[in-house]
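User: Hi! I'm a student and our assignment asks us to look at how structure tokens line up with a sequence. Could you show me two examples?

Assistant: Happy to help. In each example below, the sequence comes first and the structure tokens follow. Example one:
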Amino acid sequence: MGVVGKEIAVLWRKASSGDKAPFEKKADAAKKTYHSKMEKYQKTGNYKKHQMRLLAWKIHETKKPFRKDENAPKRSLSAYMIYTASVRKQIVKENPDMSVTEVMKEQSAMWKALGDSDRQKWNTKAAAEKKKYDTKLARYMKTADYQKYVVERDAYKAEMKEKRNKLMGVKKRARTPTKAKSAPKSPSKKKAKRSARRSRTPKSSKSRSVSRRRRSAKSPKSPKRSRKRRAEKRKSKAPKRSTSRKSRTPRASKSRSKSRSKSRSASRSRSAKRRSTSRSKSRRRSTSRRSKKASE
């Protein structure tokens, strides 16, 4: 397809304007129909949904992490990874038909079956390798390659952040210039303010004394009247002890006695009714017996 495309491009360049004219007319007509359809499509809801998805995809692309450092030393393996690497060859020899996932499952089962004493050997190996990695990393961080990588990484992050803010419509806040600190006030002004405050204090005491004198100059209230008023207020505030309570107690006792007498009379009447019904029944029985004997 690439070779055919190149040959077609050469033929198009060699063609005259008369030969190109019918193809150009067709292209213009197709372009007009496309623009008319596109204008209609942009007013639909599907276009808006597509634009929202496109915006979300673009924002997601700005959150991709920077590439890994190629020159950095490789990280040390964990105790589990060291053990699986040592056991893998043995599992593959014993089970050549096993798939990769089945081999990994077998490795994890063997690791779980190990006791604490058996795992300790692999943990010590992992700790030794981690120490070696830390020393290599500390040396590498002092090199020029690492400094170059850091500069490129920071520039990439700043660029992606700027793009993200533009897509999300976040505007940068203009930093307000910090006000210059005012020069410390002279001690003479401070002393003047303190003296002014001290001079104000006696004036306030005078005004208080004048107000007290005016209050005392008013007509003094008689102590007898004030006592009477206090006693009246106490009486009004205190809850009134009504005499109805005293009168209620004997009434309550009378009502109780009446209710008791009524209940007794009702019980007596019920017992009398029962007796009368039992007597009437016994009479009826006796009369029925006599009538039977007479008939016999």
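Example two works the same way, sequence first and then tokens:
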Amino acid sequence: MELRPCTNKDNNILVSPCDAKVLSISKINSLNSLILVKNVKYSICEFLFGPSPVNQFISDINDLHLSKDLYQITLYLSPGDCHRYFSSTQMHVKNRIYNPGFLLPVKPSYVNNHPDTYKINERVTIKGDIFNSDNVLYTTYVGALNVGSINLNFDDFLTTNQRIDEKDLKANKGSFVLFYNQLMAGTKTIEKEKLFFYKPKISLLFESMINEMEEFDIRDMVDIDSINLQSEKSKELSLNSAFDNLESNLKYKYENSFMSYDSIIYSLKKKFENPKQLKVEKYEVSSKGILLKRLEEVGWFNFGSSIVLIFSVDRNKEIKFNFKPGDKVKIGEDLYKLN
């Protein structure tokens, strides 16, 4: 990261965690006004914590909303961007929430026509308490079509692309949580959560998605903006070649939008005997969570996807964003100024 130095040392000024295009920036005026797609409002609790969030999470968000101003920034990583992501500030990562779901495309042209994508796609959220501050940062890594997995350097428990048991879906248990602030030296044994697997039944999810998938266009997977050729004819030939290659390699069906997973092999994995086997030995771990330094590598996607930052700002501060939707942003660039 020395090639992209971060000059601002104020922990309350977040920097971009990735190379990306800014999709949206908005203030969160209520718990039901999270706007990730133009003119579409999400419930912030459902987006972060799943369809049936625990009361503790709802209470934390509600208290935060009452005392702070909340904002969101959505960043889209195209296939040509670096797919590693970094910490936007120095913070203690307190917990992680894994929400299983679909792997629909997150390319802007697709999301604009399918606004529920961010609500039903697989995603992983980490909560960070910003260092030497009472502000909070939620970072959500959103899965997408052909994204092999969402990875965190310090979390070997996380295994994405899971098929969740039918009974859990009916009970609306839509998320799996790990509290890093409980990984103290005195921990004796940490077991991986036992998950069961099934072929998703459309009735348990969204029947309306059948019609939406009929509109799926393989060309949405190609970042046309990255093909910058002098000749329009050459550009057309390059696009046709890209489409042909995608079509020949694509193995995607709506009814099986999760990756396959061998539950027998999974069940034979060893238990973790201590927190070090969680890959946290190089991190400072305390009752506050795992300490991440600004621009420390957090993890990686196996293919392009998107990252949503939801963060708090003191109400006596005036915020001015350095970017607008459609702009490109690089790792380590300040996202805004505070006055």
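Here is something you could point out in your write-up. Helices lie at 44-49, 55-67, 108-111, 117-120, 166-170, 208-214, 232-249, 263-268.
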